[in-house]
């Protein structure tokens, strides 16, 4: 009302403030957070629209802004803007069967102590099936490779592992399931020559390979299940881009809200 009196009637500021019982400081106050709030909203909208991050919830978005980008914004403030933008997705609760509590999975204490690997399957737009081989370092949840092709026999698995070892170093062990590629003589012979242990989980117990199973879900939700690919080359190109983003930009809840690259650097 004081501003309207000054603007429309030409009343002096001091007189308008005395009339309406407010201080001149209050009259001249301007919010300082509006620009920052707009910047926060812009970041959140971009994360929600990006192909690689649109499946992220609030937790990952906040950790990305705080730990990866280095913004000092408060958790409650970012959450408030996130909800005002209506970016929070409703999660439908699922009915779950009661089961025995599994034994806790061992947490490696250094890089290359234990790797995990597993296969996934999908289809191109023309119906042709392809597979992916996902290799993960359990220490920092770093994706070491996503090998993509129509067929991934044991010889191809061995070749992929050799390529990873050339730049990353040799692991002490690799945890796998009981798939035909993993129980093959070729993989076992290669591991024996390299001095690498192959640790098989029990049949029907995927929770014993929980790190890579959780990673597989992220792969499925954040890129593999988001697009229809026409060629195998498109899948390979997208896998390479997403893997770099996962390792260097995506905060991981399992390692304290930092990226795999950050944890690897801390361990150096």
UniProtKB/TrEMBL annotation:
Organism in which the protein naturally occurs: Hyphomonas polymorpha PS728
Protein name: Putative transposase
NCBIfam families: transpos_IS3
Cited InterPro entries: Integrase_cat-core, RNaseH-like_sf, RNaseH_sf, Transpos_IS3
Pfam families to which the protein is assigned, alphabetical: rve_3
One BP annotation, GO: DNA integration
Recorded superkingdom: Bacteria
Molecular function (Gene Ontology), one example: nucleic acid binding
Integrase catalytic domain ranges (all copies): 107-268
